[in-house]
Design brief:
The chain is α/β, with parallel strands linked by helices. It is built from seven helices and seven strands.
């Protein structure tokens, strides 16, 4: 039977790229995004479309319920999101921090609560969180993402340790700069590969981590950044 995958923020960029890659690999799909464009992507891929935000528990509940109603199982989840607020570190207001918490960390925690029982009933599953290189090496240009996705890295490990015995794996992918966003000479100069990642490269990495070929990989934070980060 074809496996079933949920992909969030799937109307464009990495999310849409992942959805297309998984479709090629035989997955049945449930897609969510805030944009109306999600309907077109879902139609292209013969997928379930749910309009909603990963920031809202009710929307995640609707997505998971609709997926189970249509397909009867959930084998894989890709937790992708939009972008949080930016600004001078101490000038960022509390509401922006709280919104980013929902967007970048609690989205994964809530999704895990919702899909883990279904994966346990199905005998296992795999979850991949789309994070950022800045979780490894904080970047002042992305303060909220740097801080909260470092927390996501810790959650990824804790979840992986807890649910490995149930056959459920969780990993995070930490991309550098991706060609779905404009290149700048300053950023290119920082990257040893001297180019941004292609969306397809990130999507293929995520698809690998969901696959049985990665069946012994869990709790990891995989940096895919063309050599941008310097730490171990």
């Amino acid at each position: 039977m074809e496996p079933v995958a949920i992909v969030t923020a799937a109307s464009k960029g990495i999310g849409a790229g992942v959805a297309r890659e998984l479709k090629k690999r035989g997955y049945r799909l449930a897609l969510m995004a805030r944009s109306d464009k999600i309907v077109g992507v879902a139609k292209e891929l013969d997928a379930l479309a749910v309009k909603g935000s990963v920031e809202k528990l009710q929307d995640l509940e609707r997505l998971v319920a609709a997926t189970l109603d249509r397909y009867g199982r959930i084998d894989a989840v890709v937790n992708n999101t939009g972008h949080s607020a930016k600004g001078e570190l101490l000038a960022i207001a509390d509401p922006d921090w709280h919104q980013a918490l929902d967007l970048l960390l609690l989205n994964v925690v809530r999704m895990a609560r919702l899909v883990t029982p279904a994966m346990e009933r199905g005998g296992g599953g795999a979850i991949v969180n789309v994070s950022t290189y800045a979780a490894r090496e904080p970047d002042a240009a992305f303060p909220l993402s740097s801080v909260l996705r470092a927390g996501l890295s810790s959650f990824t490990k804790l979840y992986a340790d807890r649910y490995a015995k149930s056959g459920i794996r969780m990993n995070s992918v930490l991309p550098g700069f991706v060609d779905s966003y404009p290149e700048t000479p300053e950023r290119l100069a920082q990257i040893p590969a001297r180019r941004f990642a292609r969306v397809g490269e990130i999507a293929a990495t995520i698809a690998f981590l969901l696959s049985t070929d990665a069946g012994y990989i869990t709790g990891q934070n995989i940096v895919v950044d063309g050599g941008l980060t310097r730490g171990p």
